[in-house]
Amino acid sequence: MPIGRAQQARLQLDKAHQRSYNVPDYTTHFRKLVLTIGSGVSEEERLHRYVVGLQDNIREHVHMREPATFDEACQLATRYEAMKKSIQSKSFYYREPKHTAASSHTPMELGNMQRMQHNKQQSGQEPKKNTCFYCGKPGHYAKECRKKKYDASINRLNKGEKGQRRQGPSNQ
Fold first, then answer.
1. Which of 143, 148, 149, 155 is deepest in the core (most CB within 10 A)?
2. How far is CA 113 from CA 67, 91, 122, 127, 151, in A?
3. Are 134 and 148 in contact, with CB atoms under 8 Å apart?
């Protein structure tokens, strides 16, 4: 006994899965099967069979949203897949920003470490335990460094000259 088109479509609907389809193609295939079957498929059955046939991660997303209709489930699945592809393409093309001389900032500790390495290369020996991280000289720490304090005072003076001229104490 030959199987009719509606019965054949019903069997295909029972086995319908997204597999390698993207969501819009799977949705189109699913809708064609439902149209071929005709009025024998209720809204509830369409919704259930469509969601079950989606890929695992998309199915979980759609199921969590609890769509009320088949069309709502299709929209959720399509949006989720588009969002997922967008995120993947952005992460694929993401590149670290290029550092230029004008925009490169190094933390103070990094600059001091580079200075210490330079001092180490010149002297050919490891720095001692109580070596200053600012000037690289032994015998004191950075918070006690006279060179650091001197540089800070020079910077303050330079800032004062760039801004307004310093005035003497005001008489009040």
1. 148
2. 58, 33, 14, 11, 18
3. yes
- Would the pLDDT of 51 be above 90? yes
Q: Maximum Cα–Cα distance for the chain, whole Å?
A: 114
**What is the model's pLDDT at position 108?**
53
Each domain of the chain, given as residue ranges in start order, spans 5-92, 108-162
At 73, the amino acid letter reads A
Contact indicator for 112, 118 with CB cutoff of 8 Å: no
- The answer, as to whether pTM is greater than 0.85, is no
Which residues lie closer than 8 Å to 9 by C-beta, 6 or more apart? 33, 36, 37
pLDDT digits (tens, 9 = 90+) for 83-99: 988 887 766 555 555 55
